[in-house]
Amino acid sequence: MLRKMNRNEHPQWDKTMRITSASVYPVMVAAPGSLLLTGYINDDEAMMRNGIKTGAAIGLNIFLTSGLKYVVNRPRPYVQYPHDIVKRAEGGIYSFPSGHTSTAFATATALTLSTKKWYVAVPSYAYACAVGYSRMRLGVHFPSDVLGGMILGIGSSLLVFQIDKWLQHN
Questions:
Q1: How far is the CA of 51 from the CAs of 93, 119, 154, in angstroms?
Q2: What CA–CA distances, in Å, run from 18 to 21, 57, 91?
Q3: Staple 156 to which of 7, 61, 88, 103, CB 3.0 to 4.6 Å?
Q4: CA distances from 144 to 16, 84, 91, 102 (A)
Q5: Mind listing the pLDDT tens digit for each residue in 130-161?
Q6: Homologous superfamily of domain range 26-165
């Protein structure tokens, strides 16, 4: 599956995939910031709290993802299969789980839980899927790395929002 996604040269598509991957960093800052700002402007304490929870979920996700990379120690696809996988982007030493994908899914889940609007959820998850695809196309992650990132990102946000719900009821 990865070989099929990674093969053939498509310079413009690869440029788009590198931009998609790189966009995760500004998005992970903009998402909680926009929720906080929206809550502040509208004097909406719940939305400001959602901004804090979104930031916490992304932070937890990054902590867990970074830790797992060093526990699992899985090499990148282009390292493990240098004759089959073309490296089209930079990545750290370890592959599992995909940090870009986990961050994109943590952000999408937190935004969905914060707004409960389909018109936020659908593009957020479509974007997160595009990030996951981009990591495979660029040769820096296996499909299982992306799947692990999806699970970790979604789980991080669900956990933070659930803990907040428990704290609010106690």
A1: 32, 18, 16
A2: 5, 25, 11
A3: 61
A4: 22, 17, 16, 12
A5: 999 999 999 999 999 999 999 999 999 999 99
A6: Phosphatidic acid phosphatase type 2/haloperoxidase (1.20.144.10)
